[in-house]
Amino acid sequence: MEGEAAGSARVRFGPPDLATLREDGYVAVDMHVHTEHSDGLIRVRDALRLARRTGASFAVTDHNAVSGAVAAVRGAGPGEVIVPGIEISASEGPHLLLYFYTLDDLVDYHEAVISRAVGECPHMATSLPTADVLAGLEGRDAFAVAAHPFGYLFLCRGVCKAIAAGDLAPEVLLRLDGLEGICGGMTRSQNNRAIAFASEHGLALTGGTDAHLLGEIGRVVTAVRAGTVEEFLDAVRRGDAVVWGSEKSVIEKTVQAAAVLPQYASYLRPSLRVHYRQNLPRAVRYLRRRR
Fold first, then answer.
1. Are 80 and 58 in contact (CB under 8 A)?
2. Are 62 and 35 in contact (CB under 8 A)?
3. What is the distance of C-alpha 230 from the center of its chain?
């Protein structure tokens, strides 16, 4: 297993060997996948076919939406582990990956907490701050993970980056179960920071491609020995997972961005308003520090 991360024997960098994982009794799940039900270009039925062919299962984590996850779970065959999930975009900027033990729990959470908070651009920030997104999980059987904790670029799309920027209180970490240790959209240094941070704070690790295109699914997986969604999430929560995968190249990221951009074309004005609201205060603080 090539490129093991320093200090974390359960994390492997490099293309995952899905055949070996399957032979060793692991179920491998790409825990960060976007479909055409939000800003991805992946049809659920194609993702299911790919999973059966390659052995890489997945969690649909569409932005602020659950229809893709519903279609995937209902379309799964006997014994296939498709994890019900969603990626919530909090009002301050951070993205949260939430996984549920049952599809009913996911749908109920979305209807009760998220649906009324979705903005004009459904793929972007909701009106809920991070603390409220996580508070809505109280009393629900769920597993909460910070997506790409140190991303993206000049945007605070990660919890850890938002805390460092002063946009979030550190106490939000107490409500999290884990961090995304390998995110296909991040750089190696950002992923290594996430892995080290999770180790320092006793948080579980997950891995996902952040796939928006079909061919990306399975390039980062979270693998455990499990036969059901419940067993899978319990094992990940305990830290029993092998997180294995590799980041996208600059060219691959550019191709993905170009493919996804049309999904936002009809939401140009609300998208710009979201960026203005989230990034102007951060820019002002930066300029004041520079004086």
1. no
2. yes
3. 18
Domain 11-290 fold is TIM Barrel (3.20.20)
Amino acid at 72: A
**Which token pair is 137?**
């999980």
**Domain residues of the chain, as ranges?**
11-290
Phi, psi of 3 (to 5 degrees): 70, 45
SS (H, E, C) the chain: CCCECCCCCCEEECCCCHHHHHHCCCEEEEEEECCCCCCCCCCHHHHHHHHHHHCEEEEECCECCCHHHHHHHHHCCCCCCCEEEEEEECCCCCEEEEEECCHHHHHHHHHHHHHHHCCCCCCCCCCCCHHHHHHCCCCCCEEEEECCCCCCCCCCCCHHHHHHCCCCCHHHHHHCCEEEEEECCCCHHHHHHHHHHHHHHCCEEEEECCECCHHHCCCEEEEECCCCHHHHHHHHHHCCCEEEECCCCHHHHHHHHHHHHHHHHHHHHHHHHHHHHHHHHHHHHHHHHHC
Residue 43's CB is within 10 A of a number of other CB atoms, namely: 15
Q: What would the two tokens of residue 150 be?
A: 């140190």
Q: Cα separation of 78 and 129, whole Å?
A: 38
Query: Mean pLDDT by 10-residue block, N- to C-terminus, for the chain (291 residues)?
Result: 46 96 96 97 98 96 98 96 97 96 98 95 93 96 97 84 90 95 96 95 96 97 96 95 96 92 85 75 66 67
